[in-house]
Amino acid sequence: MSDSALDLLRRVFGHNGFRGEQAQIVERLTSGGDALVLMPTGGGKSLCYQLPALLREGCGLVVSPLIALMQDQVEGLRQLGVRAAYLNSTLDAAAAAEVERQLLSGELDLLYVAPERLLTARFLSLLERARIALFAIDEAHCVSQWGHDFRPEYRQLTVLHERWPDIPRIALTATADAPTRREIAERLNLGDAHQFVSSFDRPNLRYRVVHKDGGGVRQLLDFLEGHRGESGIVYAFSRRRVESVAEQLQAAGINALPYHAGMEASLRAGNQRRFLQQDGIVMVATIAFGMGIDKPDVRFVAHVDLPKSIEGYYQETGRAGRDGDAAEVWLSYGLGDVVNLRQLIQQGDAGEERKRLELGKLDALLGYCESTQCRRQGLLGWFGEAHGGACGNCDNCLDPPQSWDGTQAARKALSCVYRTGQRFGAGHVIDVLRGMNTDKVQQWGHERLSTWAIGNDLDERQWRGVFRQLVAAGLLEADVEHHGALRLTAASGPVLRGERELRFRHEAAKPARGRKGRKSGTSAPMVELDRDSQIRFDALREWRSATAREQNIPAYVIFHDSTLRAIAEASPDDLDELSRIPGIGASKLDRYGEAVLQHLFDAA
Question: Does the keyword Nucleotide-binding apply (predicted)?
């Protein structure tokens, strides 16, 4: 690695050294080579193209899919003294023209642009007259038609190589299994690019999965008790669900905001701005609140409903703990989630091949949820990465689940589904198994079936666990054309004939209502500050919040919590000592150094 790259890393970005394969990626791109980079969220992907753009002559052009991502990245770079800009629909004609003038006159180091704008004939013509240092294609998994964020425009980005074959390109993503990586390389004509694949592991995240009790909101509230005053994201299945959950959280005294694509645009943008700029906001959202959420101090991501795939789950949970500090990801799901998602997939406009793929990914996520092995092993295994041994930072490692021989219970359940005509959901079948004399049972004469009351040795919660695990194991499936009725699959035959044994997870005991979550033990602990350091840290956070409000920017753009924590612990006496703390480059030292020292002095 050249001295100039290390000098820029320290002087501009405030880091004393590279992480992982950053140095090799920077060297590859700086020397004119192409690269395909897979690096987990928070792993430092942006630096891999930002630094080479500063080292090479011209402007680095970054293809970015979301406005929020562009604006955050540009504001952060400007705080570092980097000449950065973006072109998107938020700019009026005069502002856009000024950015284009800066590009042509060589006044920009980095320019962020959406793929739709880049692909216009006018903009491509503009690039012909500019000096381009490199092309960076962020969120490159959007090129894959099999991925969860497919964007057709990404397919046309091969024009960059066709028209500028000598300008290096880098494609980056945090989420791509092996088939998606191959498709990225093929679709973007990156066959000769060096692939840098970092570990997908996020060791600072604690994974937890619970089985939904009712709507799952009470369980969510119990979980949030352990994260009072912290920033976090709660993902829900639908717009209506988002509104409902946000209202229930607000009623419980939680500073929660909704976010979904059906909201009025200014309200949605205002809620996102509050989440990014204020501390302690809980955003309840659909996956519309997605890529480009760059807030580093998100301490938890909760899914109150089941996501559609492991890739989607991984990317959404990756928004927690981007600063490297401990964070928790929590998922609740039930059989109703499976029915809803299967219905969404099967009634969609996609072709049959796409539907089969999405159903397979949903089944893989169900298997992950029901697994008794280490969560991290299962998650990384999906991306083709082995993880040796138990991680010690997931629910299955911290509280190993017990299993039981569920063969006979499974045979009873499958038989009852068959005897009732494979036309009812789990609730009614469970009533038949338990001998519940409901109106519906009487209406259909199911009290006369041979399976009537043969399952009264298990309670309703245990039977729901059995049916959920039978669906996860592929022995039952929900018929979405008949309102989620359960029906047998071909794989159920060996179980019914006594040729296959099954083991099920024990259902966890139902927690007492209103039980308070515990702060300790909810996630891997952060480094505790001593009393004096905590006082300095709190003072610095207050100063940072006030400064951010004055500039109308997110607080983390000024300094991350981890940087403030390091300052509070070191308690530097002068600018020279302050400059040695990671995360403080020359521009931020000039801009904020004196204020930081003054607040440290006042807090003493």
Answer: yes
